[in-house]
Write a structure and sequence with these properties.
Layout (H helix, E strand, L loop, with lengths): L1 H41 L30 E2 L13 E7 L4 H17 L4 E7 L9 H10 L6 E3 L4 H6 L6 E5 L5 E6 L4 H13 L1
Parallel strand pairs: 2-3, 3-4
Antiparallel strand pairs: 1-4, 2-5, 5-6
């Protein structure tokens, strides 16, 4: 009887040990990422929430896009929307570890190739989700590995994310030549429609 009780106690201690390790890992890795995402999603101000997604916004109803927050730039000197006046600008909120973001990359890179010389500028705003994505060294390795040649700026403190009111990765925002928000798409898909908007705004 005593031997049986001892075995039960040992098993209970082992299970408790595994539980403690799992909880510690959750608090160290998973919980901070969730907290950052929730903080970003709930502190959005007006942002994109008031705009109808996947609809070309009329110029006279379009609002001015927020300026990029300070960050580290890759593939470019620091850019501002003021400097980009006269360009159609695609702002893509992404992070390199995001599966859905990677699925959008072929289309975004194709737009860069097709329309850069016609006045399109793509800016990848890299807003990290996991701890490893906060590292500028990791990002500097991933950008060329993914074949990204357009400008990318870090958004480690979520300032640009919050200014635009973004809630998910990836989010694509298309600005016209006056720096106004004319199109918003969240998630994968709608590539043909987004390209159509780019062409329309380039022709304006």
């Amino acid at each position: 009887m005593i031997k049986k009780v001892s075995i039960i106690i040992v098993i209970a201690l082992v299970v408790a040990g595994f539980a403690i390790v799992a909880i510690a890992k959750y608090q160290r890795v998973v919980q901070p990422g969730i907290a950052r995402g929730l903080a970003a999603a709930t502190d959005t101000g007006d942002g994109l929430a008031n705009l109808e997604a996947d609809t070309l916004i009329a110029a006279d109803k379009a609002s001015a896009a927020p300026e990029f927050a300070k960050g580290n730039w890759i593939n470019s000197d620091p850019l501002t929307l003021e400097r980009l006046r006269g360009h159609v600008v695609v702002v893509e909120f992404w992070t390199f570890g995001c599966y859905n973001c990677r699925n959008t990359l072929p289309s975004v890179k194709e737009w860069d190739t097709k329309y850069r010389d016609r006045g399109l500028t793509i800016v990848g705003v890299h807003t990290p989700e996991t701890d490893g994505e906060y590292s500028i060294d990791n990002l500097r390795k991933e950008v060329p590995a993914l074949g990204i040649k357009y400008p990318v700026v870090t958004d480690n403190d979520y300032k640009t994310w919050k200014a635009y009111g973004v809630e998910a990765w990836p989010t694509i925002v298309v600005l016209d030549k006056q720096g106004r928000i004319r199109w918003v798409h969240v998630g994968e898909g709608r590539y043909e429609e987004t390209e159509g908007v780019i062409k329309t705004l380039l022709a304006e």
